């Protein structure tokens, strides 16, 4: 399946995960920009204290507040929030116990870290709870505060545990304020309002991990959304030469003759170097083709994003967002 | 640029422990395995401790199951001059073994059955790092190998490897847990005075959230451990001392990407602040240019050939070359920036293999590339 679907357009919470190093944060940011295109307001959230969003947009570290971080074509707007579990816990406690000044002291003592260590699920409940609050928040006009929320989630290895709030709640007390909140989170995450997207590279390991994650999501009754295939290189060799080249067979004489006809005179070593590079390229393209076939097993909508040789800066994010809009993201 | 001489490092009998660290997804495990294979073939008696290796990489070392013990690597075509053992870390079992080794039978059973122990030994984010250190200490202590190569857990930040054990021991060793579980007892009073009524509220809030039973379990567990080990903190300290001792070297593995190099920079600075021996940086999966031809000339020639349609193969080869030059230039720029910030750090670039490594030959090839052959 290629491209975005209407069903995905109806989601209000877009969770983005992927194996480490696949460019999950970049894709999440580009997706937020794409969704905001045309005048919508989108919130981009991170939860792992990495300040990856600030780095990507070349900004100082984000505070625990929703700040405008970019405008999108057509009057859209992206805001960003770095959720800090400590701040989120204090926010909850404040709501119910009015800790005030003592809260800060406890924080300094490491008491909050301690509480989240006692029950590791608590941290996830707090983070997803904050995300849910953002998704559901309504303006006085009755409209949702955000048309969509994009969550830069933990990597594939941990994402299901992170989203499996039901399981985390089993660790917690049977009553109490956070418990009540969590039930709403469970409802949101398992509804059609949420889609969990996966970022993959066309390499065997990331693809296998993606397939495993899809199976795990299905088993946990969470809805896989789209697969974003990141950093796709253009195939350069003609299809008919590809298989032979991948096995090391490139006609060096033909290459030399071709170069000569273009006015390039090169020595044997250079021809050999060019041929070696072409062979490596062909091997990689073949591996990518195999990875793509494997990925098709997931049977999810897929969207390809090009490799950016110059790295990812703010301008590149807009470029990627444009590609996504071109593939139907809205 | 100061070049890292991998063979000299592996051949030096004074090199006893090599720790491969770096952020996730940079190829730490493969690098560790390749170093161990090369060391063994050059005559060392090595053991490699891998953490969560990809299945096929594990198989290439003959590792089929996670049994938490070093196994001799017996793979067809592998007859090293020295010797090689390999193992995969099982963090739960390492923790269990530690309990069995230090507590009496009855006590150990109590601890293992404690629900809080089960949480800590499987889900706490620092446990894997802590157990990796523990296992490293054990392997060094067994004195059966003259070189121990360790991979580090796939955390988001390389620093976690140094910080997590401390974090875990702070949690388990801390006064907080005693105050929370038995606030009336001595020791808690001082801090209670400072925090005042807020602390009572906090205790109440925490027990409302996590439940009184969990607090009780945690407290029982910590008291049992305390009497058993004489404190987690000392144990973490012993590992730190090992890491700081002569014979230990840290190899920071990074991809030639901004994020991975930034992490590598943090780590390099941290090691120097901790007086820990930094051996060098492995810049993994680089794409050096193999033909001395300017990218602009190659592009122009490819344009001409494509217009005429005469030599599609040569045109494609030139496009591949231009792409490669662009990638190589970027990598060189990023590595030069790292070297400017850390001029004293020896560095070696490891050219990328076009396919995944999944057998011994692949590991040998990585080894050759590490050594600059």
UniProtKB/TrEMBL annotation, chain A:
<dbReference type="GO" id="GO:0005524">
    <property type="term" value="F:ATP binding"/>
</dbReference>
<dbReference type="InterPro" id="IPR016300">
    <property type="entry name" value="ATPase_ArsA/GET3"/>
</dbReference>
<feature type="domain" description="ArsA/GET3 Anion-transporting ATPase-like">
    <location>
        <begin position="14"/>
        <end position="180"/>
    </location>
</feature>
<dbReference type="Pfam" id="PF02374">
    <property type="entry name" value="ArsA_ATPase"/>
</dbReference>
<protein>
    <submittedName>
        <fullName>ATPase</fullName>
    </submittedName>
</protein>
<dbReference type="InterPro" id="IPR027417">
    <property type="entry name" value="P-loop_NTPase"/>
</dbReference>
<dbReference type="GO" id="GO:0016887">
    <property type="term" value="F:ATP hydrolysis activity"/>
</dbReference>
<dbReference type="InterPro" id="IPR025723">
    <property type="entry name" value="ArsA/GET3_ATPase-like"/>
</dbReference>
Automatic annotation (TrEMBL), chain B:
<dbReference type="InterPro" id="IPR016300">
    <property type="entry name" value="ATPase_ArsA/GET3"/>
</dbReference>
<protein>
    <submittedName>
        <fullName>Anion transporter</fullName>
    </submittedName>
</protein>
<dbReference type="Pfam" id="PF02374">
    <property type="entry name" value="ArsA_ATPase"/>
</dbReference>
<dbReference type="InterPro" id="IPR025723">
    <property type="entry name" value="ArsA/GET3_ATPase-like"/>
</dbReference>
<dbReference type="GO" id="GO:0016887">
    <property type="term" value="F:ATP hydrolysis activity"/>
</dbReference>
<feature type="domain" description="ArsA/GET3 Anion-transporting ATPase-like">
    <location>
        <begin position="15"/>
        <end position="286"/>
    </location>
</feature>
<dbReference type="GO" id="GO:0005524">
    <property type="term" value="F:ATP binding"/>
</dbReference>
<dbReference type="InterPro" id="IPR027417">
    <property type="entry name" value="P-loop_NTPase"/>
</dbReference>
């Amino acid at each position: 399946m290629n491209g975005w679907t209407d069903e995905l357009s109806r989601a209000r919470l877009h969770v983005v995960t992927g194996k480490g190093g696949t460019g999950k944060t970049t894709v999440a940011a580009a997706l937020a920009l794409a969704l905001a295109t045309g005048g919508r307001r989108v919130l981009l959230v991170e939860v792992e204290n990495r300040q990856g969003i600030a780095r990507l947009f070349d900004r100082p570290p984000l505070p625990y507040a929703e700040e405008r971080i970019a405008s999108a074509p057509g009057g859209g707007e992206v805001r960003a929030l770095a959720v800090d579990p400590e701040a989120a816990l204090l926010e909850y406690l404040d709501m119910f116990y009015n800790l005030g000044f003592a809260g800060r002291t406890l924080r300094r003592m490491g008491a909050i870290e301690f509480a989240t260590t006692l029950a590791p699920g608590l941290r996830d409940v707090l983070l997803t709870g904050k995300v849910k609050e953002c998704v559901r928040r309504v303006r006085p006009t009755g409209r949702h505060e955000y048309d969509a929320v994009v969550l830069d989630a933990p990597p594939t290895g941990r994402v299901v545990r992170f989203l499996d709030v039901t399981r985390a709640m089993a660790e917690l007390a049977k009553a109490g304020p956070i418990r009540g909140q969590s039930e709403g989170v469970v409802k949101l995450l398992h509804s059609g309002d949420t889609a969990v997207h996966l970022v993959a590279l066309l390499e065997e390991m990331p693809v296998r991990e993606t397939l495993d994650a899809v199976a795990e999501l299905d088993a946990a009754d969470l809805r896989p959304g789209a697969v974003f295939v990141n950093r796709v290189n253009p195939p350069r060799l003609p299809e008919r030469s590809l298989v032979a080249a991948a096995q090391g067979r490139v006609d060096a004489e033909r290459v030399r003759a071709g170069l000569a006809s273009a006015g390039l005179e090169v020595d044997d070593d250079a021809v050999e170097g060019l041929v070696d590079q072409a062979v490596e390229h062909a091997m990689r393209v073949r591996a990518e083709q195999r990875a793509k076939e494997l990925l098709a097993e997931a049977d999810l909508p897929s969207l390809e994003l090009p490799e950016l040789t110059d790295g990812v800066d703010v301008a590149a994010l807009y470029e990627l967002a444009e590609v996504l809009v071109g593939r139907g993201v809205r | 640029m100061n070049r890292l001489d991998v063979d000299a490092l592996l051949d030096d009998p004074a090199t006893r422990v090599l720790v491969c660290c770096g952020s996730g997804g940079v190829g730490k495990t493969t690098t560790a395995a390749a170093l161990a294979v090369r060391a063994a073939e050059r005559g060392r008696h090595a053991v490699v401790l891998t953490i969560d290796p990809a299945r096929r990489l594990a198989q290439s070392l003959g590792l089929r199951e996670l049994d938490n013990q070093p196994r001799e690597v017996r793979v067809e075509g592998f007859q090293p001059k020295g010797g090689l053992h390999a193992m995969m870390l099982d963090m739960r079992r390492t923790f269990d073994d530690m309990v069995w080794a230090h507590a009496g039978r009855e006590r150990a059973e109590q601890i293992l059955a404690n629900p809080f122990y089960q949480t800590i030994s499987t889900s706490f984010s620092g446990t894997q790092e802590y157990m990796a250190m523990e296992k490293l200490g054990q392997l060094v202590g067994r004195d059966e190998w003259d070189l121990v190569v360790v991979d580090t857990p796939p955390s988001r930040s390389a620093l976690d490897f140094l910080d997590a054990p401390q974090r875990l021991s702070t949690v388990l060793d801390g006064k907080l847990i005693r105050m929370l579980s038995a606030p009336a007892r001595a020791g808690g009073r001082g801090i209670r005075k400072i925090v005042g009524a807020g602390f009572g509220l906090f205790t109440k809030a925490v027990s409302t959230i996590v439940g009184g039973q969990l607090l009780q379990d945690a407290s029982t567990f910590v008291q049992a451990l305390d009497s058993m080990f004489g404190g987690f903190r000392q144990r973490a300290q012993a590992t730190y001392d090992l890491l700081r001792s002569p014979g230990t070297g840290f190899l920071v593995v990074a991809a030639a990407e901004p994020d991975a190099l930034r992490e590598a920079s943090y780590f390099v600075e941290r090691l120097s602040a901790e007086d820990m021996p930094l051996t060098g940086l492995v810049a993994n999966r680089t794409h050096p240019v193999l033909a001395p031809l300017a990218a602009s000339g190659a592009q122009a020639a490819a344009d001409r050939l494509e217009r005429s349609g005469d030599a599609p193969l040569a045109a494609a080869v030139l496009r591949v070359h231009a792409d490669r030059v662009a990638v190589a230039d970027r990598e060189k720029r990023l590595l030069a920036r790292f070297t400017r910030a850390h001029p004293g750090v020896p560095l070696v670039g490891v050219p990328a293999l076009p396919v995944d490594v999944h057998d011994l030959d692949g590991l040998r090839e990585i080894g050759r590339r590490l050594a600059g052959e």
